[in-house]
Design goal:
The protein is α+β, with helices and mostly antiparallel strands and 218 residues long. It is built from eight helices and four strands, in the order E-H-E-H-E-E-H-H-H-H-H-H. A four-stranded mixed sheet has the order 2-1-3-4, covered by helices on one side.
Length: 218
């Protein structure tokens, strides 16, 4: 049995499928060709054991022996230590990758996530809150666009920084929020065309489809 176990929900509603954050971890594991297994916990009834691994009752978390890690960014940094496919080996490149990991999670996702949530719930964008979030996101994209226009990946070769940055941009792209930012849009397209992403995404969708089938047969 593989040492690495990724835990996600056993089922989620249709809307977030393809965007549940275990996808980031699946993607990294596939890029690094690290063997792993997938375990699941109930979506509805979250136990004390769940909170022992993830204190906010979320997913994913990764276990490796006695080590249990939650938060997708922390998990990807942990996996980056195990594979040159995920993290540059030289100190300078590693430092750059880590900076962009935190930029994706702190500077970009803090704008992209609330904007995307408004879109997911069908907000038409006419409210003051939606207008504020749209302006906030546009500021972040304005500064990210020239960075991505000048390079294929954030730090030389593909790394965990690209998994996180492209994934925080994916929901924006889903709602055509990158139309005015072609470098950002092309970057997401490059990243999601990678075989490891394609497999990770398909595996997540199969996982939740199997849960639908199990519920239907119950």
């Amino acid at each position: 049995m593989p040492d690495l176990t990724l835990t996600t929900f056993d089922w989620v509603p249709e809307m977030p499928r393809g965007f549940v954050r275990d996808l980031r971890v699946r993607w990294a594991l596939e890029e690094a060709t690290l063997p792993y297994r997938v375990a699941s916990v109930p979506f509805g009834d979250r136990s004390a054991a769940h909170f022992a691994h993830q204190p906010f009752g979320q997913v994913p978390w990764l276990t490796e022996g006695d080590i249990s890690i939650f938060e997708s960014g922390a998990i990807l940094l942990h996996l980056g230590e195990r594979s040159a496919a995920l993290m540059p080996a030289d100190p300078s490149g590693r430092s750059e990758a880590i900076k962009w990991v935190f930029a994706a999670l702190n500077s970009v996702e803090m704008a992209s996530l609330p904007w995307s949530m408004f879109k997911f719930i069908g907000d038409a964008g006419g409210t003051p809150g939606a207008k504020f979030l749209d302006e906030f996101l546009q500021i972040r994209l304005k500064y990210l666009e020239p960075v991505l226009a000048g390079r294929e990946w954030l730090v030389g070769s593909f790394s965990v920084a690209d998994i996180l940055m492209s994934d925080v941009l994916r929901p924006v792209d889903r709602f055509d929020g990158l139309a005015a930012h072609p470098a950002c849009r092309d970057y997401v397209a490059r990243a999601t065309a990678r075989p490891a992403f394609v497999k990770a995404h398909a595996d997540q969708m199969v996982h939740f489809a199997a849960a639908d089938a199990a519920r239907a047969g119950a």
